[in-house]
């Protein structure tokens, strides 16, 4: 479901998501443009770093992890730097993630999803919330990166109802 970008913070109640979104929105509002990767300052969301990640859209069409926070690396059981979606996720999930990632980059838009997923290390359904925000490359001409914040096993109200919101950037 599409929602106005101005409603993004209203939809986020987890502190990590809010901190990342507030930083991104401040940069966006100051220039009127999608922030570049270089403009992101993790000192503005220190408590969210363990759940933060950045994905690069490669020229070959693959998405690769530039970085992933410690909490998420523990969930996946390994260092994900340089891994593609195909390297990390089950084959059935990859097309869904690629479609969502392309939506963030090509439309462009921010995204917020609350879904149930299987956590790799224990294979039990867990509530999972993901915030995705587009970033431009160094030249500022191409939207080529995704800044994300993902949190498993939501404590407040777990399991929460599933939602999928998209916030077009106009």
Tell me the number of helical segments per DSSP (H or I, 4 or more residues long). Answer: 5
**CATH architecture identity:** 2-Layer Sandwich
Shape, principal axes of CA atoms: globular
Q: Going across the major beta sheet, what is the strand order?
A: 2-1-5-4-3-6
Uncertain parts: none
CATH level-4 homologous superfamily: PAS domain
The span between the termini is 16 Å
CA-based gyration radius: 15 Å
CATH class: Alpha Beta
Structural class: alpha+beta
Written description of the protein model:
The chain has about 170 residues and is of the alpha+beta class. The protein has a single domain, classed as Beta-Lactamase, CATH 3.30.450. The chain has helices at about 10, 15-30, 70-75, 85-90, 95-105; strands at about 50-55, 65-70, 110-120, 125-135, 145-150, 165-170. It has a six-stranded antiparallel sheet with strand order 2-1-5-4-3-6, sandwiched between helices. Strand 1 (about 50-55) and strand 2 form a beta hairpin. It is globular and about 40 Å long.
Task: From the structure above, extract its key features.
single chain, alpha+beta, 6 strands, 26% helix, Beta-Lactamase, six-stranded antiparallel beta sheet, 170 residues
Provide a concise account of the structure shown.
With 170 residues, this protein is an alpha+beta fold.
Write the layout of secondary structure elements.
Layout: H1 8-11, H2 15-31, E1 52-57, E2 63-68, H3 70-76, H4 85-88, H5 94-106, E3 109-118, E4 125-136, E5 143-152, E6 163-168
Antiparallel strand pairs: 1-2, 1-5, 3-4, 3-6, 4-5
């Amino acid at each position: 479901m599409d929602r106005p970008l101005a409603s993004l913070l209203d939809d986020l109640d987890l502190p990590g998501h809010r901190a990342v979104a507030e930083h991104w929105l401040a940069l966006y509002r100051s220039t009127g443009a999608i922030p570049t990767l270089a403009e992101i300052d993790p000192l503005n969301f220190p408590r969210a770093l363990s759940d933060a990640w950045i994905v690069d859209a490669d020229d070959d069409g693959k998405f690769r992890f530039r970085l992933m926070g410690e909490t998420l690396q523990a969930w996946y059981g390994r260092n994900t730097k340089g891994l593609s979606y195909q390297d990390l996720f089950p084959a059935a999930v990859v097309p869904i993630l690629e479609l969502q990632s392309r939506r963030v980059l090509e439309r462009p838009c921010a995204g917020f999803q609350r879904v149930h997923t299987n956590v790799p290390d224990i294979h039990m359904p867990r509530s999972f919330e993901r915030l995705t925000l587009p970033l431009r490359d160094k030249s500022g001409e191409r939207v080529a990166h995704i800044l994300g914040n993902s949190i498993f096993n939501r404590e407040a109200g777990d399991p929460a109802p599933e939602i999928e919101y998209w916030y077009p950037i106009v």
